[in-house]
């Protein structure tokens, strides 16, 4: 992700919450779709790859894992590149890398070649598109940010509904090699989306006024602001809790979409009928993400979006646990419906919660570090589930493990926020109390006023005493 300098916007331009921001939102919508749906859509080719290279489920699962690991783990690299060259050039180069990887993978002669081409090169290209697009979205929207996040996140299920059946058709007509080649051409659309990321510039008058009004000390203070990565976010307990919970969540979140097609085929269903499950999941997900974004933007809900996110994780994990008992196609359809709802809620809230916890100033550095730590879990999750499947030959244990991991992340997030973060809002109150208690000067003037009032009263009494005294003296005289 980009550094703090880009997030601050040295020009001080306010988020327009519209205008060209809608074009940026559309670009982020497409990029998010490719980034998240592509690793799942590639799973359609796993059966052919197993036959072609004589490998197991765990070996093919590494393709999706490496894709997601590159998407998550290259956050610091994206931060450096965006700070040096800006969002638009980085995204254009990323689109070329994403396409090149799939084209080279179509000529692969071993599974390792696919790891390097599809996993590393295409994954790097998608990361160079995904993370800068989130930076631009965060800079163009402020008040409408939850809705913008929900709409952008809806790109993932829309792309999944399109890419999964398309991959199945390409596999039948052209084989997996022809399918990879055509998908590489489709990924060139990332370059067009990168061209939409127009940076925000301030009006010339405001720049001139700012230069005239800002003192030299302000310019000197503005110089050390640009940073590649701001590691001070680790001092925030909310960020640490979110990072730990998100790392546990990623272990099991992406496992069911990767294995649900193979699960349906194992039950004796046709390939096209099995691939339709991802389409159902994606269709439900399309409506779940914007709806959850609207709910998260409500005044009463937005300050408590962390707990809404915890509920979404519990919902998702429970769906995995119940889905492990599926024994026919109808039960898998019901599982995909509920999984699409819960998965859409998680997708719409994960970055909104991070923005709320860290703030817009440190969001770019925070998301880069979060994705880097999540990459380790992404790299371990699906392959470990694949090994469990190879050893047990039962998909039930795979879905059970994924559900337990997701529910555990929800409990960590909710309980730790209740125990530790609840003290944070009390801090300003205690500080105010201390300020009130430690401000005797404010009370002293009241006391002084009280003494002055007493003196005024005494002064009003003294003339009478003086008159009586003079009268007595006159009488004596």
Explain what this protein looks like in three dimensions.
The chain is mainly α and 477 residues long. 81% of the residues lie in helices and 0% in strands. The chain contains 21 helices and no strands. It has helices spanning 4-8, 21-41, 46-53, 57-73, 75-85, 87-105, 111-140, 145-153, 155-186, 189-195, 204-213, 216-222, 237-253, 255-266, 271-296, 305-323, 329-358, 363-392, 395-419, 426-437, 440-476. Helix 2 packs antiparallel against helix 4, helix 6 (87-105) runs antiparallel to helix 7 and helix 13 (237-253) runs antiparallel to helix 17. The longest helix has 37 residues, at 440-476. The chain is globular. The termini are far apart. Residues 1-11, 206-223 and 423-461 have low confidence and may be disordered.
How is the secondary structure organized here?
Blueprint: H1 4-8, H2 21-41, H3 46-53, H4 57-73, H5 75-85, H6 87-105, H7 111-140, H8 145-153, H9 155-186, H10 189-195, H11 204-213, H12 216-222, H13 237-253, H14 255-266, H15 271-296, H16 305-323, H17 329-358, H18 363-392, H19 395-419, H20 426-437, H21 440-476
Helix pairs in contact: 2-4, 2-7, 2-8, 2-9, 2-10, 4-7, 4-18, 5-6, 5-18, 6-7, 6-9, 6-10, 8-15, 8-17, 9-15, 13-17, 13-18, 13-19, 14-15, 14-19, 15-17, 16-17, 16-19, 18-19
**Structural class designation:** mainly alpha
**Count of DSSP-assigned helices:** 21
Radius of gyration: 30 Å
Low-confidence runs of at least 5 consecutive residues: 1-11, 206-223, 423-461
Task: Measure the end-to-end span.
Answer: 100 Å
- Estimate the global geometry from the Cα principal axes: globular
Count of beta strands: 0
The portion of residues forming beta strands comes to under 5%
Order of helices and strands: HHHHHHHHHHHHHHHHHHHHH
Query: What can be said about the biggest beta sheet?
Result: none
What integer is the average pLDDT? 78
- Range of helix content: over 70%
